[in-house]
């Protein structure tokens, strides 16, 4: 499956998850402010998982656990995708196609993305209007394939539904 097809499926799954979450909590929509704060929070959790690579002053710092980094990166995907749909005031299949068309160049050239500085990418996601492009660059910087992102997204989606069911 190509990245664009995987992303489309992820967006559709995220749309359904968002609807279930909103229904569970009696909300009609998510605010831009809350979504931005959620993205910042998840980026902080991601940065914390990467601490073994950049925390030079702590002798007891644990090494980076690649699986935990992937989990946190996928959490960022959840909120970035939600942010993209909320900015269009729609999560229809047509809106999702429009989002994917906007990012088509980045999606099609994912495997060619160059290595950027981690600190720049993390900062850029929190203030960029084109968050998905920067998130794809971050994924490449962290040396994850999109297949890894897709599989972890599917895993996390199941976990999120279990959490909803169990009152997380």
From TrEMBL:
Any Pfam family from its record, for instance, is dUTPase_2
Protein name (Swiss-Prot/TrEMBL): dUTP diphosphatase
- What organism is the protein native to? [Clostridium] ammoniilyticum
């Amino acid at each position: 499956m190509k990245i664009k097809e995987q992303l489309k499926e992820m967006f559709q799954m995220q749309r359904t998850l968002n609807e279930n979450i909103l229904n569970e909590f009696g909300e009609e929509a998510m605010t831009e402010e809350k979504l931005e704060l959620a993205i910042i929070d998840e980026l902080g959790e991601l940065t914390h998982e990467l601490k073994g690579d950049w925390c030079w002053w702590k002798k007891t710092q644990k090494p980076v656990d690649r699986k935990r980094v992937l989990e946190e990166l996928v959490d960022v995907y959840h909120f970035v995708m939600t942010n993209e749909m909320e900015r269009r005031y729609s999560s229809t299949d047509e809106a999702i196609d429009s989002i994917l068309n906007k990012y088509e160049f980045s999606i099609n050239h994912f495997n060619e993305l160059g290595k950027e500085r981690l600190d720049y990418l993390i900062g850029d996601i929190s203030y960029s209007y084109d968050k998905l492009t920067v998130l794809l660059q971050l994924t490449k910087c962290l040396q994850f394939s999109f297949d890894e992102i897709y599989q972890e997204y599917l895993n996390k989606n199941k976990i999120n539904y279990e959490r909803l069911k169990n009152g997380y």
